[in-house]
Design brief:
The protein has 144 residues and is mostly helical. 64% of the residues lie in helices and 7% in strands. It has one domain: Arc Repressor Mutant, subunit A.
């Protein structure tokens, strides 16, 4: 694993060294909320990530054990990327970012609807999503 030089011992700083760039969180978002799991899926995201940045971020996320690669069931030329439990543990933070954006920015109608559900019972929303993600994680382990 590529070792990242810590800027400080601050937990926020150390965490940002792992997932704090724009693209890494967007990849995690796409996996959590939009069930994206292949290189091609990520290239189709609205933000328009370049291929070299995508490859670099996927490698970094894998090295830091936030995602794992699995064999694609339909093609030996492709791989599937799955979130690990370490990434699923980011779900409450990502929901909070969505809630902040809902309050302070203009967001899409789809996201507004999702955040309306989250605001009804945030703990239940996070628990339900975490269960779904864990189920996908467990299903992926069964096929590898």
């Amino acid at each position: 694993m590529k070792t990242v030089k810590k800027r400080s011992e601050c937990p926020i700083s150390c965490s940002l060294d792992i997932f704090g760039d724009k693209w890494s969180l967007l990849i995690i978002r796409d996996m959590m909320f939009f069930q994206k799991s292949t290189y091609g899926d990520f290239l189709k995201s609205a933000e328009g990530i370049s291929t070299n940045i995508l490859a670099s971020r996927l490698q970094s996320l894998e090295e830091n054990k936030l995602i794992e690669k699995l064999e694609h069931p339909d093609s030996k030329a492709k791989v599937l990327y799955k979130l690990t439990q370490k990434a699923i543990d980011l779900l409450p933070i990502i929901v909070e970012i969505h809630l902040w954006a809902d309050k302070n920015l203009d967001i899409s109608a789809d996201m507004k609807a999702m955040m309306k559900e989250a605001k009804k019972d945030k703990s239940e929303f996070i628990e339900s999503m975490a269960k779904q993600l864990k189920k996908q994680l467990d299903a992926g382990k069964g096929s590898s």
